[in-house]
Every structure is written in C-alpha cells, then in structure tokens.
C-alpha cells in the first residue's frame, strides 16, 4: 500500500517515482498491456530505422522487448525518476548498446525540433491526466506541445492507454485540431480476464502540417478483431465507440464469473457499415442442473420470427431456455439489413465472439451447440423500404413462418421489434434463400406486383378479439345487419378489410393520418376502396371532433387501432390524447345508443393503465376487457349505456351465432376464429 500515491498530483512528482522504484526494486512494473498483445499494433507504426522516443519509460520492459525482437534499436528512453534511469542503464548497458536512458522531464525536453519519427507513451498520459483541473490540463497541453515539437512531419505519437473518456477526449481534440490524423486501436486481449478486465487501447496520432482554415478531421477506430479502420465523424462519437467496447469487456467479465439474474442484451455490429448485425440475449436458467453437456448453447432465431412471443419477450426467452435444457442460452436475432450465408456461415462468424459470453464453470474445450427451429435460419425478403414524415422509416417484408406459411409484414423501424401489420400470403413467389438463383436469371423487378394476400385471415390475435366484440351490437335476439363502422388507424388494412368482406352490409370508414400508409396498404396488402369502404386522410382527433359536432350518433362501432409515435410514454397504443376524457366523450357522441367502442390498448405502465381505465369507466357505463395471451395488448369494449350488460353465457352464445352467420358457403373461414373463445376471457370492469 505504501507504493500508492497519497493524491493523484503525486503521479507528476519525481520524488514520488524515485520512492516508488526504490521500493519496487528490479521487478519490472507494467501498467497494462503485455508486449505480445501490443506487438502487432506497434509493428504497424514502428519501422526498424525509426528513431524512437519513449516518454515516462519507468522500468517497463517494453523498450527492451522491442529492441530484442528487432523491431527497432535506436530508442531513447526518458523519465523524471533518477532512481529508475540508473536502474535501467545498468540493466541494458551491456546487452543493448544502441538504446539510451536519460533523466529528463517530458514537459521540457532538450531534444531539437523534428528529431524523432516515433514518440511512444505507455501509461504516461493516463498517469498525468488524473483529473481535469486547470493545472493538470496545462501540464498535458505542455506535454502534447513538446511531443509535437520533437516529432517530424509524418511521425507518429503512439499512446498506450486505458482510454478513460476524459483522457481520450483531450488527446483526440488536441491533435485533431492541429490537423493530425487520429486512429484508435483496441489491443487484442490475451484472454486472461482475471488480471485485468478493461481493454487496452493504442492512440496513433500521425503528424501532418496544419492547413490554415481547414476544419477537416480524420478520426478512425480499429476494433481488436479487424485491421481495417472505421471512420467516425466526431471526437464524441469516437469516445462513445471506445466506451461501448469498455462496457462490453466489463459485461463479459461479469457474466463469466456469475450467473445473470436478469437477461442481458447487446448488439454486435457489422464491421463495414457499423449497423447492428446480431442482437444477442443472454438467458440463464437457475433451475437447470449443470452437467458436462448442458452448460451453454446458442439459439439462432429464424429471420422474421424475432417478434414472436417466444423469441421477442423476456418471458418467452426464459421459457425457451428452460425447455432447451441449458444453464445458459444465448439467443441470436438476425437483422433485416444484413446478408447471411446460412447456418454454417453464422456459426463460423459467431463462434469466437459468443465464447466471450460463456457461463462460469464451462469445461475447457467444451463443444457449444448451435440450435435453431428446423435447423435453418429462416427466410426474409424485404419487398419495400421507404420513410414518411409521420411514420419514419418503415419496411414491408415477406417472411417464412412456422411450417410452410409465408407472411407479409409492415415494420416501423423506430420500433423494429413490433409487427405493425401482418397478412398471410396465399401463394408466395420463391424468396431469396430458398434455392440458388441461376446466374443468367434476372432478379425480380422491385415494381412487380406483390404476392396474393389472403384477405380471409387475421394474423393478429387482437384483431380477432376486436371483430368478436361486434357481437355486442344489436338487440337481445338480433345480430348486426347493416353496420356503420369507423376504424381509426389503417396500417396494412387487414382489420377494415375483414369487416368489409365478412359483414356484407357494413359500411366502413377508415381514418389514417399518414398518406404513405394508404399507399402501402393498397400496393402491398391488397387493400382497396369502394362503395362500402372509404379512407379519409386526417388526424383521428380532428376527424372525430368534427363528427361529434356535425353528425352525432351515426356509428354502430368505432374501432381504435392506432399506434403512438412517442416511445417515451409507457403506452404504445393509442397515443395518450386518444384516451383523454374530453375526446372520449366525443367518441361516445358519435356512437349510436346501442353501439360499441373497441379500443386496442397497449400499456406497460401500470399506473398509467389504471388511469386510462378509470377515465374510460367515467365516460362509458359498460366496459368489458379482454387480455391477449402472451402479449401486452388488452382489448376494451365500451358501450354508452348499461342496458346492454351481458353475462359470459350470453356473450358466448352471441359470439357463436355471429360466427355461424359469418361462415357462409364459398367463403373461406380460418379454424382459429373461434369467436366464442375470444370472448370467453372477457370480464366486466
């Protein structure tokens, strides 16, 4: 303990370092970064004929090792500690005649200008820049100015560092403003995480003549697993990229020692674009008793299925891990912007990286299995990409589901794990990845018509429940005949299409704020307008308010299936303004006395949800709720008067009668539409 300084300022004191090295004796002291780890990076920037200056050399073996392997011999080492300089001269005098050790302060060096091709610093900047006090920053700037002075144009300042944010930011800002090229290398780890957890970095600052008036900066980072540098746009972004790698190293160290109490997620990014390529979730199952063969497995989620409950929720992944029977399961989701060369290619790409996330107690040389559904990586074909001012970026994609079915999906990329709309394809064309395309065969044109949509199929469970709620309409013995239905929120159009097609006397009005969605629904999801189907491009709030003022009591059913663009609120459907009391009173106004208001509510904030339900109860005397199993969605059926109150038996009977009326000869009906089952779990609030 006596070797530690009493204050950070002592790191700049010659007296402290004299005492430090006298106490330590002849044992080399390495801050961090063993020579075998640093050598590949140093060889890129140190040539055998270079004249090298090592500042703050201490009694590190780095200079000696560089000399001994023939990397460079003309090496000048300086330090402010007389004790360590005498010690190092004695150690190298007879074996390294071309290497010298000088007692010198790097803040006031005696060398002439442009004397060296390389200045090497291993931990010295980190030791000096212990805080951001004015006096400390002045010393650092003096150090940088001296290094700049003694380096030739084209020379390199190599700084081995732990890259604390304030240290890296200071170095990058200073030298980039001087017109130097700044590159940060992450040093490949030796794999010994017990001794030192944090990764080591080497800043490479290459001196160029400063061009007056030029503000251009060249900032790059080289991760440990690649040689090709990646350009970054600012010092802040460079610091953030380094911080990401530090957090990853700490995470790997933590979960390699103890089981995860909560699921851990992280993205692995593409080397070229920097965009996410894989999303990993680490799921530990404490109930699984470890044996030699069930410690660890990797599960590749088939493309397009990452949004399913089993793969896309914590509870689903927990169930998946328990059923797989492994103590730790690492699920891997594949991103739509990326191309993958099958299961074997993914395994080869991930094998090294995933072992960094292995659980404690994994036997040495243990084979880790890669698992998937059906043994393949699934099929995904992006059919359309676009953006709109209201919805942001979105994609339309075709994916293979469980079995032989294919589905078309609309995804808003600001919430890429949520399927906005989905439709089943009747007879999809072969998708990329199904079989190898002949070289002479033309790729399909992006303007070719989409595959046929199965309009009889409702993919979303909450849409089935919303349709089932229409059995609340009509008198005690009557089922809905002629209907006026208002749907707020178009999406792909599957809900209004189903109501239009199966309720043959229904007149459906759809309100959609984003004209891009009408184009998407029409082109890609088989939606069309007609005498009984009209779309109004308008804000739902304004449209309903206008109706309430001009034409009250005209709708049998009003359905809200509209998402919120504000991800900071704990309610993603509908936007909060749609469930405020004054607006809900307008909704009640446009409903007929026996009508029903059907609301798709997606709210993760328990307190906010209770507030919404309380407001609904204030406005609507009769309120039913139906939870969607395995999802956050809850479907609420609201009626203007209490006279229509029905018990579970009557609801079931009416749902069966409605289903019977909708099942007509020659009209397809999916067996999953058990409307009575949809209402079986309904309860009155």
From TrEMBL:
One of its GO terms (biological process) is methylation. One of its GO terms (molecular function) is methyltransferase activity. InterPro entries: Lys/N-term_MeTrsfase_sf, Methyltranfer_dom, SAM-dependent_MTases_sf. Residues 434-444 have a biased composition (Basic residues). One of its GO terms (cellular component) is cytoplasm. It holds the Pfam family Methyltransf_31. The keyword Heme does not apply. PANTHER family: EEF1A LYSINE AND N-TERMINAL METHYLTRANSFERASE (PTHR12176:SF78), SAM-DEPENDENT METHYLTRANSFERASE SUPERFAMILY PROTEIN (PTHR12176). Belongs to the methyltransferase superfamily. This is eEF1A lysine and N-terminal methyltransferase. It comes from Promerops cafer.
